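pasting for ref
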Amino acid sequence: MTGWTAFSGDPAEQSGNYIAVKATAVEGAVINAQIIGGDHGPVTLDEDGILIARIKNVGQDLQFKAITADGVQTITYDLSGLTLLDE
């Protein structure tokens, strides 16, 4: 998608490769998401569970943590299979 600037007010983050995913967990869980090796730390997802993240290189991983009263479950996805387009 070209010309999309809603991701960030920072012009350096208004172009590149993005991934959109929806995360789900058990009712009442808080879901945190993070691009490991990205420019930002973890974010807490809204109840819609949708994450839009900027991918800088295929050496990054996408990590989710579902936090409940019973503990934390972590799932990490290897993004090395993605094909990124040149900017």
